[in-house]
UniProtKB/TrEMBL annotation:
Name of the featured protein: Serine hydrolase family protein
Lineage: Bacteria, Pseudomonadati, Pseudomonadota, Alphaproteobacteria, Hyphomicrobiales
A Pfam family this chain is assigned to: Ser_hydrolase
Molecular function GO labels: hydrolase activity
InterPro entries membership: AB_hydrolase_fold, RBBP9/YdeN
SUPFAM superfamilies in alphabetical order: alpha/beta-Hydrolases (SSF53474)
Top-rank taxon, per record: Bacteria
Length: 186
């Protein structure tokens, strides 16, 4: 099986986060480390992601929060051809975040074009970092599958997500799907 690249968001998915647990549980999982998790710069984060993709062609990306926005910015770049699929969990609204904190300005505006690889957005109805309606609208623009996880907060340890085996099931589907079977929104 090809690699699973774990792509945390702002602050790097702290200890106890389901992404960190995934790394312990899956021998094929690797984290895309950033030099500075507290001061995200899109060009620097893209460089790290693209370098990891060149080392791991055919990888499935498992992103959380600002990591989802990083992945959406990857689409259309040459390294995107190395992506087998992407699981985008609790995307963060970088546009709103940038208005409150200039550290997020390089991630805005949010891409609004169809992604160049199969993907699934998983969103919560009470996520403080992106409204459910905006996540659903972006999913349609991106051409992704969409999963409504109900009232699950930011899908992180604070909302009870320490171990999330359902995420691994979703990612396995992206690893195994044939191009004509890829999940797309209608």
């Amino acid at each position: 099986m090809s690699a699973t690249l774990i792509i945390p968001g702002f602050k790097g998915s702290e200890a106890g986060h389901w992404q960190r647990q995934w790394l312990e549980d899956d021998d094929n999982a690797q984290i895309v480390e950033q030099d500075d998790w507290h001061y995200p710069v899109l060009s620097e984060w893209l460089y790290k992601l693209e370098a990891k993709l060149v080392e791991n062609p055919g990888a499935v990306l498992v992103a959380h929060s600002l990591g989802c926005i990083l992945v959406s910015h990857l689409s259309g770049r040459p390294a995107a051809s190395h992506v087998a699929g992407a699981l985008l969990v609790a995307p963060a609204d970088a546009e709103t975040m940038a208005k409150k904190d200039a550290r997020f300005a390089s991630f805005a505006p949010l891409p609004r074009e169809q992604l160049s690889f199969p993907s699934i957005v998983v969103a919560s109805r009470n996520d403080e970092y992106m409204s459910f309606n905006k996540a659903q609208a972006l999913s349609k623009l991106w051409g992704t599958g969409f999963i409504d996880l109900g009232f699950s907060g930011h899908i992180n340890p604070a909302s009870g997500f320490h171990h999330w085996p359902e995420g691994a099931i979703l990612a396995a589907g992206l690893h195994n799907a044939q191009p004509e079977q890829q999940l797309r929104a209608g």
